[in-house]
Amino acid sequence: MNGQIALLLIQDGIVNGAIYALLALAIVLVFAVTRVLFVPQGEFVTFGALSLAAFQLGRTPGIVWLLGGSALVVTIVEVISALRARRASRIPRIVGFYVAIPAVIIGLTIWLAPKNPPLLAQIALSIALVVPLGPITYRLVFQPLANASVLVLLIVSVAVHFALQGFGLVFFGAEGFRVAPFSEARWELGAITVTGQTLWVLGASVALMVLLLLFFERTLLGKALRATAVNRVGARLVGISASAAGTLAFTVAALIGAVSGVLIIALTTLYYDSGFLIGLKGFVGSVVGAVVSYPLAVVGALLVGLFESFGSFWHSAYKEAIVFSLLIPVLLWRSLRSFHMEEEEEEE
Amino acid sequence: MKRGTLPVLVGALVLVAAPFLMPSYYITLANYIGLASIVSLGLVLITGIGGLTSFGQAAFVGIGAYASAYLTTVHGVSPWLTLPIGLALTAVVTLLLGLITLRLSGHYLPIGTIAWSISLFYVFANLEGLGGYNGISGLPPLSIGGRELNSGRDFYFLIWILVFATLVTVHNLLDSRPGRAVRSLRGGGVMAESFGVNTARVKMAIFLYAGLLAALSGWLYAHFVRFVNPTPFGFGASIEYLFMAVVGGASSIWGGIVGAVILTMLKQWLQDLMPRLLGRTGQFEIIVFGILMVLLFQYARQGVVPLVARRFLKRRRVSVPEQAAALDARPQPDRGELLLEVRAARKAFGGLVAVDDVSFELMAGEILGLIGPNGAGKSTMFNLITGVLPSSGGQILFRGERIDIRMSREIVSRGVARTFQHVHLRPAMSVIENVAIGAHLRTRTGFVSAALRMDRKEEARLLFEARRQLERVGLGGHLHDAAGSLPLGQQRLLEIARALAADPVLLLLDEPAAGLRYQEKQALAELLKKLKAESMTVLLVEHDMDFVMGLVDRLVVMDFGRKIAGGLPREVQNDPVVVEAYLGGVE
Questions:
Q1: pLDDT tens digits for chain B (587 residues)?
Q2: What residues of B are in contact with residue A170 (Cβ under 8 Å)?
Q3: Which residues contact B511 (CB under 8 A, 6 or more apart)?
Q4: Contact A327 B51 (CB under 8 A)
Q5: Full residue range of the structural domain in which residue A56 is found
Q6: How many domains does one find in chain A?
Q7: Do A335 and B114 touch (CB under 8 A)?
């Protein structure tokens, strides 16, 4: 390997690492607020990416049916629980949130998809199709299990991954897609070439991270999320609803996933099941920070990206094995640093 | 004939007759169910009962299968030799993985196993000599005594005999000394450790056993199908095994088998149905599996078997012998010997000093009360003596030996047994089994002899001792009740019985009267008086001054982490500093 190749691999690693970092942030956020280790984070990536690919081909992304169907189910569940609680006054809000918003997004998608709208509209719609799936997943799956142990939530989270990946196959098919880069620009920077897409990915990742930082530091909602992460009961006592915090965390996670998806599909071909490995790499990154530290998660994710690009250079067939074995030393390191911190498991 | 024997006999007959009556398609299906059952029984042991979760069992199946496939086809080794090799390989991997992840809090093991199972999948698929994604074909059949097992029916018997053997060993294990240690893992492990259970070792042992079962299943699979490729050993397969255990009911060994039956059949049915519904082929059954799991956890978290069993089956009772040889007891110290010496013990949490250079002594045969208002640092002091918290300074000596540098399980082995303020019982286990955990260190039975039922003599002595201690505290009539069904007062007595079962020299009671009603307090006081008459040494931590006054020989009073008084109850009661601490001073 010479210096030029090394630089190339580093560039590659950082670009992928930036995506993993975004996902790692989403995973840390969801875990901190809801204690869910959200394995299906990667499915939001593929859903966003493959929706964009469908728009590019002038097709209606099949995911509209998933969005429509799940929104219908969640509406029914919410209306029933509102009626049971004799709070019929909540129904207009439910309808607005779970019927009107998805209906607008689906309507726009079906109307615009065959008309080949501008790229920006395609991107916006691809993201908009995925984002509601976050709160819907939370409401249908995890909110009823709010008091379950981390382990139960993890198994359920894997089950959700199973289901979503299956839906991915139904709605996007088994073939792979890739879209043209947002920008064809390239710059020669000494020995290496920087493409416009690289800058897009890095720029968008940094921008999203800064936005998240501002959100957590400067807004009341962000502070409420942080409070819930620190102490759920305490947050509830000062009037922060745990389920509202969970809904918000999942919304942000879905947004991050979808954005990552539309960024990454210009770099590599994605299949319906690619999200799983991508999400897991974010996971590995977040484990570096014990799934609680945001900065360490970003560092870990960048490491994963670098490891992956060098791994694929040395032994491309073993790329994945190499990346996931990275977890072993990380866990070892954590295990040597950890003192007895058993979680009290509640009784069944 | 014992109750329950008949259904088992009928079941066995059906199982034996089945392959002669079923078409071969169903025999094959039954074989797959059997193979899956072996794996999911291992998962029941670790997940449902031990509270650990593995997302990597299929990878262990893969090791067993690939080890045999490679060695038999490339090197012509006999399948009967490849089995121990595959098991040994699996043992090495499980021990390594366990070493790394089992010390960490609960969710790292599953994360570690996810990574491990994905890594191994790519290794199988890419390692030279393992045939890549195409796999290895042409494995030799197994042969027993010169007879080749070629048909599905031949394999049926081998597989189901092994399923049965697995079931029996897991069942035996759970109903034994190491089994109770496994069952006490859930709930954090503080209780198990404080009665001498090495929880890390117990976790390792069950993780190893589950891995070996998976490898056994893989070896059988390889020679049944006589072809291996990476797909059945991937992450998805691991999840299916886990789903089996959970759907069946991971807290019951039957759950492992019922789950394997349900999921294997459901998968077959869905694989036929879904493509017709959707007009395309693909792995669509995973959608149904995923949704099914979510619903199961939301509405019937315990799985199918416990749901059914609760209605139709009675709790199985442990048989407690009427008479058995007593367990060895340690010699008790002479009255007045210096047992416990606390020298300037100190514990700081950051800037907060919870125990501030506290010193006191405790002689054999004495009942010492450690009292103080809420927040005085009594419980922290208690945790320092029992090794639950590491101290920040000073020394604690038990019979002249420093114990503040020891772990809980080392301290209890020296004869210091404790109770918990917030009772730490296994609520679903019977009263007598809970007490039996207390005598863990007085018995030796290991995993292997328990699984093979070679422990019955010692088990009888152990249960007899547990019964004796329960009668001593007045719970002789509740041996078989679920511990969680007792009222708090009796749960506290149960905790004392468990501590007594450890044959202690020194008994530590952490606020035993907290939250008790008047009559319960009286029963407790009676018991303590009785123990005192038997010259048991007791350190009683309490904040209820009235309760301790008539019971103790001496008192130590703490407030804000410091010892503020000490001496005979009457002196302490009139000490103005103590009165001020309890009632507040006059400004």
A1: 455 677 778 888 888 888 888 888 889 999 999 999 999 999 999 988 888 888 899 999 999 999 999 999 999 999 999 999 999 999 999 998 888 877 776 677 788 888 888 888 888 888 888 888 888 998 998 888 888 888 888 899 999 999 999 999 999 999 999 999 999 988 778 899 999 999 989 999 999 999 999 999 999 999 999 999 998 998 889 999 998 998 888 888 888 999 999 999 998 888 888 777 777 777 788 888 899 889 988 888 888 887 777 766 666 678 888 888 888 888 888 888 999 999 999 999 888 899 999 999 999 999 999 998 888 889 899 999 999 888 898 999 999 999 998 999 999 999 999 999 889 999 889 999 999 999 999 999 999 999 999 989 999 999 999 999 999 999 999 999 999 999 999 999 999 999 999 999 999 999 998 888 999 899 899 999 999 888 899 999 988 888 888 889 999 999 988 998 888 888 888 888 888 887 765 54
A2: 278, 280, 282, 284, 287
A3: B378, B379, B421, B541, B542, B543
A4: no
A5: 3-332
A6: 1
A7: no
B115 to A284: CB separation less than 8 angstroms, yes or no = yes
Q: Does the residue A346 lie in any domain?
A: no
Check: CB of residue B245 under 8 Å from CB of residue B69: no
Position A198 in a domain = yes
CB contact under 8 A, B118 and A280: yes
Closest residue to B290, CB basis, from A37, A162, A283: A162
How far out from the chain centre does Cα B75 lie? 41
In chain B, what are the domains? 26-264 (no CATH), 338-415+504-583 (3.40.50.300)
Residues of B in contact with A275 (CB under 8 A): none
pTM of the model: 0.89
Residue B87: its H or E element: helix B79-101
Which residues in chain A are closer than 8 Å to B287, comparing Cβ atoms? 162-163, 166-167, 170
With CB atoms and an 8 Å threshold, state whether A342 touches B55.
Answer: no
Q: Is residue A337 part of a domain?
A: no
CB contacts < 8 A (A, B): 156
Give CA separation, A136 vs A131, A309, A338, in Å.
9, 35, 36
Query: Is residue A345 situated within a structural domain?
Result: no
Residue with tokens 């207390």: B438
